[in-house]
Amino acid sequence: MNVRKLTTGLAAALAVTFSLLSGQAAAAPFANADSAVAARVVTYDASGSAEFRSAVDRGAAIWNESVGAVELRPVTTGQRANIRVLADNGWPRALTTSLGNGTVYIGRQAVDEGHNTIRISAHELGHILGLPDRKPGPCSSLMSGASAGTTCTNAYPNAAEKAEVERYFGGALTRAAGARTAGAVPIGAVIVD
């Protein structure tokens, strides 16, 4: 897990700014310059992903290797997941409900056509993390999706995609306040890849 350090002055300024914006008093969330802010944890439930379970776990691991502001973790017993991952016979798609929340469908149609399951998983999780499709696009762009062709197996986000997710989840004010921010993906939209 990557950790970001903030200075006492910045933490205090953020607390004051948030209290002014929200109309509520808030204590400074950090005690000293050595305090750190952890990544936002987003849980996923892949129990409905059938034969794609290992691809989903690998897609989540790729995001964890690629960004520090958010960490995807499998849901634990009794815990409610932010993301549900399901397998079906259609085309892969994501339904976003808010940043870091929604449902991913790993569609067998794309797999049957020869698309890489790990790339599909990482791509669809990218939508839940706020990224839109970028089609047509090169294989080096994870969010180019199927437009990169069936020979493309790159499951890693490029530098711009990483930076975008870091920006959406990396704001200290957002994490300290527990606020939800919208990414480039419209909330409540079904994104069919």
Summed up:
With 193 residues, the protein is of the alpha/beta class. It has six helices and eight strands; from the N terminus they run E-H-E-E-H-E-E-E-E-H-H-H-H-E. The chain is globular, with a radius of gyration of 18 Å.
Characterise the protein shown here.
The chain has 193 residues and is α/β, with parallel strands linked by helices. It has six helices and eight strands; from the N terminus they run E-H-E-E-H-E-E-E-E-H-H-H-H-E. It has helices at residues 8-22, 53-66, 108-112, 117-128, 159-170, 172-177; strands at residues 3-5, 36-38, 40-48, 70-74, 83-88, 93-98, 101-107, 190-192. The protein has a six-stranded mixed sheet with strand order 4-3-5-7-6-8. It has a two-stranded antiparallel ribbon with strand order 1-2. Helix 2 links the parallel strand 3 (40-48) and strand 4. The radius of gyration is 18 Å and the shape is globular.
Beta strands, count = 8
Query: How far is the first residue's CA from the last residue's CA?
Result: 30 Å
> What is the helix content?
25-40%
Count of helical stretches? 6
The proportion of strand residues reads: 15-25%
| Major β-sheet strand ordering | 4-3-5-7-6-8
What's the overall average pLDDT, rounded?
81
Low-pLDDT runs of 5+ residues are: 1-35, 172-182
Report the principal-axis shape.
globular
Major sheet? 6 strands, mixed
User: Over the alpha carbons, how many angstroms does the gyration radius reach?
Assistant: 18 Å
Structural class: alpha/beta
Oligomeric grouping of the chains? single chain
Compressed to H and E, one letter per element, the order equals EHEEHEEEEHHHHE
